[in-house]
Amino acid sequence: MEAASIPTPAAHEDHHHGPPTANQSSRVNSEVLGILLFIISEIMLFGAFFAAYFFIRVVNSDAWPPGDGLPVAVAAINAAILLSSSVTMHWTDVSAKRGNDMAMRVGIVTTFLLGCTFLFIQINEYLHLGFTPETSASASVFFGLTGLHGAHVVIGLLLLWMSAVRIFKGKVGPNNHRGLEVPGIYWHFVDAMWIVVFTTIYVL
Fold it and tell me: Could you tell me which of 56, 37, 33, 66 has the C-alpha nearest to residue 143?
């Protein structure tokens, strides 16, 4: 009589190769969670620049604003432009979830153009300020904060461009809008951060 075969450990092994699927305990989508964590790190970066601003202006009592003054009216117009782009970005995201291709295309193009307009006005403002980062510590922190935000606008525009390409290729819709939602969250962050920068630098 043959001896009963003894199952080897190999017989019970799972044939799945690679690491196991990650357990997602959060209800937040992983892509959305990733951009939110990234934004938190960016807030910390801006916080360091704001700390330098308050130290120079309050603790060190440097003259503010630097130079002969800041173009508050121009910055306010830019704030309105950027806030408008946040509205059109939200409209684009809603249109994607509803499957409205035409509204999606108009929305993303409008948002991109408004962002470019903001950047153009800010660069033009730099050229007519009458002072440079080397003028004083106050001038340095002004260019540091507004330039940091401008860099984030450039990154946001690149993300909007990539989203626009996907939209015009028909790759965004009700069942596939995450690639648009994530850049939209980043763009809303950029818009909100400008309100903080504008209020702190130009108004207070």
Answer: 66
> What is the pTM (predicted TM-score) of this model?
0.81
What would the pLDDT profile of 83-141 be if each residue is shown by its tens digit? Answer: 999 999 999 999 988 989 999 999 999 999 999 999 999 999 999 888 888 888 888 88
Structural domain includes residue 42: yes
- Cβ(138)–Cβ(64) under 8 Å? yes
SS3 string, 66-133, reads CCCCCCHHHHHHHHHHHHHHHHHHHHHHHHHHHCCHHHHHHHHHHHHHHHHHHHHHHHHHHHCCCCCC
CATH number at residue 95: 1.20.120.80
The token duo for 7 is 């199952």
Q: What is the largest CA-CA distance in the chain?
A: 104
